Amino acid sequence: MLYASFNHTWRYEFERIRNHAMIATFLYTGLRAEELLTLELIDVDLESGVLLVRAGKGGKDRYVPLHPKLRYILRRYLQERSRLGRNTLRLFVSATRDRGLSYKALTRVCRVLSQATGVKFTPHALRHTFGSVAVEQQMGLAQLKEILGHQDISSTMIYVKMSPGALKDSMSRVELF
Fold first, then answer.
1. In terms of CATH architecture, what is 2-122?
2. Which residue in 32, 168, 173, 174 has a CA-CA distance of 20 to 30 Å to 72?
């Protein structure tokens, strides 16, 4: 999806850069759609490498670390946003107006990419992708719980579905005798 969002032919160059940044944000942070859409410019600290999610599900604030690749993508997006003179407080903005992106516009981006790639997905599916990949790459459940903003670790446990290759690798490291 990252590749498709960047290389798809969008109406405007700004859409290409913005949509790539949105898809990257989903895939590198596991944010919920509403959390992404309500992010404000002041919530992103590229220097410190953290993102503040204000009043996520459950009404709690949380900090999400930014992957270096995401920091680069967001920096590029913010430069383009500034070049166009977008002044709204929201991080992700409309391609044609100086206002925050709507949920309808976000789902349109996903629908266009789904049709272009033949892979049906939603913003929530990207959240699940982040969770699953994080677990497969050995992120601890306690850390993942905090990043995803889960109230209870049992919600995070849904991502503990090991691939056959990961299971085989895990078994090869067990020394019983």
1. Orthogonal Bundle (1.10)
2. 32
